[in-house]
C-alpha cells in the first residue's frame, strides 16, 4: 500500500519559517516535519510514499536526494 502525502501548501501561518523553505521542510528538532510523518508511517510498515509537491517542491526533492546520498556515505 502507498501513502500519499500532500506537500503543496505555502504555509502562510508559519511565514517566519516558510519564507525560505516549504512547510514540509520546517524543522522539528534536527529533522523536517515531513521526515517525522514518514517515520511514523514506516513504523507501521508503510514503505512506499507519494509526495504531491507544490510550493518549492524542488527543495523537497533535493532534501531527499541528498539525504539518501549522506546515508550511503556515513556508516
Automatic annotation (TrEMBL):
Q: Which Pfam families match?
A: NTP_transferase
Domain named Nucleotidyl transferase: residues:
2-64
Official protein name in the record: Nucleotidyl transferase domain-containing protein
Native source species: marine sediment metagenome
InterPro entries documented for this protein: G1P_cyt_trans-like, NTP_transferase_dom, Nucleotide-diphossugar_trans
The terms under GO molecular function for this entry are: glucose-1-phosphate cytidylyltransferase activity
Family matches, as Gene3D superfamilies: Spore Coat Polysaccharide Biosynthesis Protein SpsA, Chain A
Amino acid at each position: 500500500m502507498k501513502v500519499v502525502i500532500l506537500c503543496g501548501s505555502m504555509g502562510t501561518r508559519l511565514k517566519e519559517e516558510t519564507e525560505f523553505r516549504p512547510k514540509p521542510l520546517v524543522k522539528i528538532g534536527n529533522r523536517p516535519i515531513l521526515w517525522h510523518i514518514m517515520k511514523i508511517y514506516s513504523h507501521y510498515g508503510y514503505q512506499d510514499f507519494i509526495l504531491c509537491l507544490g510550493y518549492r517542491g524542488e527543495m523537497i526533492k533535493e532534501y531527499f536526494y541528498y539525504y539518501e546520498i549522506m546515508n550511503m556515505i556515513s556508516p
